[in-house]
């Protein structure tokens, strides 16, 4: 997927003066990290990789590391391993005054600044429709594989205000949703 690269491009558009980005990574995000590293080079950005080795992750230490590195923003690569700490990561990012970008809107609803990615509820509904077809007799091997076709850009206006960030009109016009 090219989505991690697009997320970094959107973050750069939101924060044009940004020079260094902290990236939270773990064992599930290797391919995403490689793509983000290439995009960062193209955009002239420095990355500070914070690699979480195994759960339970020490998020406070990760944020302290990002702070010592004087990063301008936080890019959290998509991983199910982060989900239990969704509110904590958003809270710590706000305390550290780090604008954040995530892969899913649930993160923005939990206080993150922005997300760009698949519309997961729509994907789950489509999966349920496919399951119904199987239950009605369709052979699973005959159901064509589908890629997501809808992506959503979501911003949290309250978080932006708390961070002193004015979301450019060009991004707001492209947003699918703005959480107040």
Structure description:
The protein is of the alpha/beta class. 44% of the residues lie in helices and 18% in strands. The chain is built from eight helices and seven strands, in the order αβαβαβαβαβαβααβ. It has helices at residues 3-14, 30-43, 59-68, 86-95, 105-109, 120-135, 157-163, 169-174, and strands at residues 20-25, 46-51, 73-76, 100-102, 114-118, 151-156, 177-179. The chain has a seven-stranded mixed beta sheet, with helices on both faces. Strand 3 (73-76), helix 4 (86-95) and strand 4 (100-102) form a beta-alpha-beta unit. The two termini are 29 Å apart.
Largest sheet: 7 strands, mixed
Compute the number of helices: 8
Report the principal-axis shape.
globular
Radius of gyration: 17 Å
Mean pLDDT: 93
Low-confidence blocks of residues: none
Portion of residues within helices: 40-55%
Q: Please tally the β strands and state the result.
A: 7
Element order: H for helix, E for strand: HEHEHEHEHEHEHHE
Furnish the topology, listing elements before pairings.
Elements (H helix, E strand, L loop, with lengths): L2 H12 L5 E6 L4 H14 L2 E6 L7 H10 L4 E4 L9 H10 L4 E3 L2 H5 L4 E5 L1 H16 L15 E6 H7 L5 H6 L2 E3 L1
Helix pairs in contact: 1-2
């Amino acid at each position: 997927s090219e989505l991690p690269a697009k997320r970094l491009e959107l973050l750069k558009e939101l924060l044009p003066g940004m020079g260094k980005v902290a990236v939270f990574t773990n064992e599930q995000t290797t391919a995403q990290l490689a793509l983000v590293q290439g995009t960062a080079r193209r955009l002239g950005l420095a990355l500070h990789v914070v690699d979480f080795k195994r759960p339970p992750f020490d998020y406070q230490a990760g944020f302290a590391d990002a702070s010592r590195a004087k990063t301008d923003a936080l890019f959290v690569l998509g991983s199910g391993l982060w989900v239990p700490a969704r509110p904590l990561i958003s809270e710590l990012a706000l305390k550290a005054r780090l604008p954040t970008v995530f892969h899913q809107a649930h993160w923005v609803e939990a206080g993150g600044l922005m997300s760009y990615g698949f519309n997961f509820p729509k994907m789950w509904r489509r999966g349920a429709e496919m399951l119904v077809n199987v239950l009605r007799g369709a052979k699973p091997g005959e159901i064509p594989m589908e890629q997501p076709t809808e992506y959503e850009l979501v911003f949290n206006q309250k978080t932006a205000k708390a961070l002193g960030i004015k979301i450019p009109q060009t991004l707001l016009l492209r947003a699918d949703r703005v959480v107040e």
